[in-house]
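Dig into this one:

. . .
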Amino acid sequence: MKLPLFFEPYANLAKGHNPKLQMSLIFKQLGLPLIGLLVFLMLWSGAAKNIETSLGNFPGPVEVYQQFNNLLDEHQAEKEKAEAFYQRQEARNAARMEADPDFVPTIRPYTGAPTFIDQIKTSLFTVFTAFLIGSLIAIPIGILIGMSDGLYRAVNPVIQLFKPVSPLAWLPLVTLVVSALYVSESPMFQTAFIVSAITVLLSSIWSTIINTAVGVATVSKDLLNVSKVLNLNPWTHVTKILVPSAIPMIFTGLRISLGIAWMVLIAAEMLSQSPGLGKFIWDQFQNGSSESMSRIMVAVLVIGFIGFLLDRLMLVLQKFVSWDKSAVLR
């Protein structure tokens, strides 16, 4: 079984294969990034002491770490309150059913304030919803316009027209349209969630469309000739020739789109007041307490870290579905 590339220096070092070279590779893998992080923390700590705002000094790494722990403690406390709330209802319902066998028990949902962890989950759900729907729309469009030069020339002006539009410009229009069309006495989703998801979708699908089209349009002529010789039907031609060949470009577009979606989501949540990390940051800004800046900085770092993880997730998926396992992806 072949080890992932990351672990090879450690395995070779354990086996005694050229220790000097393996130590050099390990230093490049772990040592240099750690040095970069330490330098960043030192610069941040030094600069924070010299930046004074109306709420006090800018938070340094220690204050941010303390607030991160506080946010985790608050989440745990809220979780315990919710469990106690449901246990009380179950005990009350059991007592009433014992006294009255015809009693139909109901469980009211816990309506406590969402914690920082809850906001992270909400943001991830929103971005994945928008990204998945956007990908299902963008990839087929990209394949179609990549297969036809005439169709590409017809659609390209529309893509170029809407691609640079800021999510801040889309948001008012989306809000008005959703408010007019999405009217229900018992809505499945909150209006704010739909507004955020559609805004993210509109702002992020263009990279996937363009990269998919380029990937399909640049498929090797030899492969296209093979398809003609074998007289493949359109569906087989797309699934066996075009899509596998265009996978690298499709995933390049998907990675860019997911990154844009994550960035746009935070702004959309702040402006639409939709639950999520964007609203958390806005609420802390409005709160104006001495802890607010530290909590906003926690959110900033978490947003960056999740963005990095999302990109790594797409990279792993790309390696998994790519037919060329020897290709260098980063």
Observations:
- DSSP finds eleven helices and two strands in the chain.
- Residues 88 and 94 are 10 Å apart (CA to CA).
- The chain has a mean pLDDT of 88.
- Strands lie at 52-53, 56-57.
